[in-house]
Amino acid sequence: MFVDFILIAGMSLLFLLVVFLLKSNTGFSKKLLSVFFINSIFFLLYYYAYLHKSRPLGGLAILFGSGSGFLLGPFLLFYIRSLIQPANKAIKPLLVHLTPFYIYWVAISLPVALSMVFGLFRGYHNEYVQIADYINLIENTYFLAYIWTSFQLVESIRKAREQTYSFVESSNLKWISYLIIGLFCIVIVDSFFSVYELIFPRIPWNIGTLIAVALILLYCVLGYKGMFQSQILLPNFLLEEQTTGNQKPIKSSKVEAESSMKPVRQLDVFTPQEIEGFKRKLNQVLITKKPYLDESLSLSQLAEKLEITDKKLSELLNQHLNTNFYNFINEYRVAEVKEKLIKKDNEKHTLLSIAYDCGFQSKTSFNRVFKQKTGVSPSKFRQLQEKDNYSE
What we know:
Elements: H1 2-24, H2 28-52, H3 55-65, H4 68-82, H5 91-97, H6 99-118, H7 122-162, H8 174-199, H9 208-222, H10 236-245, H11 253-259, H12 272-289, H13 299-306, H14 310-320, H15 325-342, H16 351-357, H17 363-374, H18 378-391
């Protein structure tokens, strides 16, 4: 009864998520995520049908929920891509990546579903049962490849955001990272069950139900986050680097050859003296105008103040200052905080108000960045300064 309740609750939760996503009508990425949840509803329905020995429900579940690894792997990857790419660049490649799912649906899902509901293809169904665990391992391997590629893409986006924004805590895709890690663990456990059943006698109850319950728990914790995930805006040159840099498994030889060429850097045409001039101008703008006090400062905005392109500024930071935009700006913000805390009248202001005045957007990011840059927490730094001021 407990498992029955969990399955029904899980399907109901996923159904509500799908309804919300479809009604929100906020873009292509939400539609991809809704397909992800719809497939999972039928995946859970299969185990519900198994518990209740319902062949019609089981056939329906297999028809739309079987082969999840071949479907969800590409949808996971292209959902992440859709957050940084326009829809027209994602649809056609996604359809190509779903080719194994089409084959699986025609060769396995459709005949097995017809066998369960109408008694057709019984011999074919029986043959499939004999090799089901082997096919499941192939499916899981395929899914794992996409899980790994998706994780790499998320990491690339995170790095790109640090080159573009001075505040990256909002929409930082942590929930997707946790989702990917959770899916990885679930697929590994499912693969272990398949290997176990190939070696040892089958367990009387369907151990795959544990996988279904694990999926429900994962979606309960993380699924709703996708409803509020916004698009991630990146400069065109960074967008191209991230989207081409994470397509190695599917590139043509021509594209591979082009991507292996040394990238053209815009600052390479300038002399060392001119590069030093850029550095001095950057430092002068930051000291005199203090644009870092703007909590939403971006790479493009700072580049505009320097009267250079955002790509040149990005190259200046990455290649000649060995940092990224996020760390570079936060160095100045921390220095500004330290300067305020050194003053003897700093006790008039709270640490949080000082942090906000210096360009930080949240207490969490302020504490983390400050300790990372100074080695001590803001409160500890203030205590040390107050002690020094008192001793004077």
